[in-house]
Amino acid sequence: MKVLILGGTTEASALAQALATRTIPAIFSYAGRVASPKSQPVPVRVGGFGGVDGLAAYLANSAITHIVDATHPFAEQMSRHAVLAAERTGTPLVALSRPPWQPVPGDRWHPVSGIDKAVSSLTGPGQRIMLAIGRMHLDAFQAQPQHHYLLRLVDEPDAPLPLPDYTVTIDRGPFTVAGDLALLREHCIDRVVCKNAGGEGAAAKLTAARQLGLPVLMIDRPVLPERHEVHDVGAILHWLDHGADLGV
Ligand code: 3Y8
Ligand code: NAP
User: With pLDDT > 70 as the criterion, what percentage of the chain qualifies?
Assistant: First the structure.
């Protein structure tokens, strides 16, 4: 058995730890999006595979027997490629995903279906907005230059960012409620924009926003391809022991 973990999330790291503890051979894969990704207790590879063909070739050349797609729910292209390459090579695949966050009493969420809808929801007088969506989609918010944006990024930007009025805070999660409360207060934030990532690593800002009575623009997830999905490491271990070879 040799497991390819498509990683980049808290759950992927927890799975890597579980496989290392059981000395199940695994390789942890990062896209190479950040300067120094978190170290892992199993061998790591960094960088794209080169599309579906590249991934299919990698699976064959590296004698991968199982794929666990533990990427972020917004890593839509990687998940699509994984399903196609798994089908083409006959490699069992399961997704380790986390359910979307659901609002609780006191939340002031405004759900939107994608980045562009989030941008168009920001018309109106200038506000102080925490954009907790990372770096990759910032240029879309040029359409709403009247706001002051608080940007939380993993790495220091190596060039000016495409917005006229912003503050950058460099941090990588998992985050804490106390830390996010302090951040929202310090920057006098009026509204939070975030992705419905689910999981624990990025949930702190939602609790902090609720406690401060702030509205949250919640970007719904993209639709991912049909595939077998589980939501915890135990279910992955069970799948590796029993389910994979039954084609489930
Ligand atoms: C490179 C590898 C672990 C994984 C930790 C999780 C939690 C902390 C919260 C906010 C939201 C955001 C962002 C976020 C979180 C975890 C998890 C998660 C959100 C690292 C990591 C990689 C990335 C890539 C990075 C993206 C960016 C998104 C920042 C590691 C730290 C906003 C997503 O600069 C860039 O290009 C950053 C790109 C994709 C989204 C974007 O569009 O900018 N994640 N994040 C992975 C790779 O190379 O394959 O060092 O751990 C991982 C984590 N980030 O094991 O503890 O599990 O989700 N990551 C979002 O959810 O909206 C921050 O600030 O509140
Ligand atoms: P994406 O848009 O779905 O993927 C774009 C391309 O990046 C893929 O086609 C693939 O390149 C490469 N790639 C993505 N994930 C990879 C991985 N784990 N290993 C090797 N190559 C990978 O992905 P993304 O949204 O940019 O996410 C990139 C990474 O950051 C993923 O590991 C994801 O789990 C993590 N992450 C993303 C978010 C987010 O908000 N998107 C949040 C937290 C963590 P090729 O086509 O060349 O194979």
Answer: 98
